[in-house]
Design brief:
By secondary structure, this protein is α+β, with helices and mostly antiparallel strands. Helices cover 19% and strands 51% of the residues. The protein has one helix and four strands, in the order αββββ. The chain has a four-stranded antiparallel beta sheet with strand order 1-4-3-2, with helices on one face. β2 and β3 (62-71) form a beta hairpin.
Length: 91
Amino acid sequence: GRVHGGVISGFLDFACGAAVFTTLTKKEICSTIELKVNYLLPMDLGDELLAKTKVVFRGNKLCVVHGFIYNKGKKAAMASATFNIVQVKDD
Protein backbone atom coordinates (compact mmCIF):
# COMPACT_ATOMS: atom_id res chain seq x y z
CA GLY A 1 0.00 0.00 0.00
CA ARG A 2 3.01 2.34 0.04
CA VAL A 3 4.33 4.32 -2.94
CA HIS A 4 7.72 3.07 -4.13
CA GLY A 5 10.61 5.54 -3.88
CA GLY A 6 11.28 5.25 -7.61
CA VAL A 7 7.82 6.66 -8.33
CA ILE A 8 8.49 9.60 -6.03
CA SER A 9 11.89 10.14 -7.63
CA GLY A 10 10.31 10.13 -11.09
CA PHE A 11 7.64 12.61 -10.01
CA LEU A 12 10.30 14.97 -8.59
CA ASP A 13 12.43 14.66 -11.74
CA PHE A 14 9.40 15.59 -13.85
CA ALA A 15 8.39 18.48 -11.57
CA CYS A 16 11.91 19.89 -11.42
CA GLY A 17 12.20 19.56 -15.21
CA ALA A 18 8.96 21.51 -15.62
CA ALA A 19 10.53 24.35 -13.61
CA VAL A 20 13.55 24.32 -15.93
CA PHE A 21 11.28 24.41 -18.99
CA THR A 22 10.00 27.82 -17.87
CA THR A 23 13.53 29.23 -18.33
CA LEU A 24 14.28 27.75 -21.77
CA THR A 25 14.21 29.56 -25.07
CA LYS A 26 12.83 27.92 -28.22
CA LYS A 27 16.40 26.98 -29.14
CA GLU A 28 17.26 25.20 -25.89
CA ILE A 29 16.61 21.73 -24.51
CA CYS A 30 17.55 20.18 -21.18
CA SER A 31 18.33 16.86 -19.57
CA THR A 32 18.75 15.74 -15.98
CA ILE A 33 22.37 15.20 -14.98
CA GLU A 34 21.89 14.80 -11.22
CA LEU A 35 18.95 14.14 -8.92
CA LYS A 36 19.14 13.71 -5.16
CA VAL A 37 15.99 12.75 -3.30
CA ASN A 38 15.32 12.65 0.43
CA TYR A 39 12.26 10.71 1.55
CA LEU A 40 10.82 12.38 4.64
CA LEU A 41 7.47 10.65 5.21
CA PRO A 42 5.83 7.52 3.80
CA MET A 43 3.23 7.97 1.07
CA ASP A 44 0.32 5.62 0.51
CA LEU A 45 -1.38 4.58 -2.72
CA GLY A 46 -4.22 7.01 -3.39
CA ASP A 47 -2.64 9.97 -1.57
CA GLU A 48 -2.97 13.28 -3.41
CA LEU A 49 0.52 14.69 -3.72
CA LEU A 50 1.55 18.23 -4.59
CA ALA A 51 4.97 19.12 -5.99
CA LYS A 52 6.43 22.61 -5.65
CA THR A 53 9.72 23.43 -7.36
CA LYS A 54 11.92 26.49 -7.75
CA VAL A 55 14.87 27.29 -9.99
CA VAL A 56 17.71 28.40 -7.70
CA PHE A 57 20.37 28.86 -10.39
CA ARG A 58 20.21 29.27 -14.16
CA GLY A 59 23.44 29.60 -16.09
CA ASN A 60 24.28 29.12 -19.77
CA LYS A 61 24.85 25.38 -19.42
CA LEU A 62 23.42 24.36 -16.04
CA CYS A 63 20.21 24.85 -14.11
CA VAL A 64 19.73 23.86 -10.46
CA VAL A 65 16.27 23.27 -9.01
CA HIS A 66 15.02 22.46 -5.51
CA GLY A 67 11.64 20.86 -4.97
CA PHE A 68 9.33 19.37 -2.39
CA ILE A 69 6.45 16.91 -2.48
CA TYR A 70 3.68 17.66 -0.03
CA ASN A 71 1.27 15.07 1.29
CA LYS A 72 -1.66 16.33 3.37
CA GLY A 73 0.14 19.66 3.80
CA LYS A 74 3.35 18.10 5.13
CA LYS A 75 6.69 17.86 3.34
CA ALA A 76 6.99 14.21 2.37
CA ALA A 77 10.04 14.31 0.07
CA MET A 78 12.56 16.81 -1.21
CA ALA A 79 14.93 16.96 -4.17
CA SER A 80 17.87 18.84 -5.53
CA ALA A 81 18.31 18.47 -9.27
CA THR A 82 20.83 19.69 -11.83
CA PHE A 83 19.99 19.94 -15.52
CA ASN A 84 22.21 20.31 -18.56
CA ILE A 85 21.13 23.10 -20.93
CA VAL A 86 21.93 22.56 -24.61
CA GLN A 87 21.61 25.02 -27.47
CA VAL A 88 19.82 23.44 -30.44
CA LYS A 89 21.63 24.06 -33.71
CA ASP A 90 19.75 25.30 -36.73
CA ASP A 91 19.84 22.98 -39.77
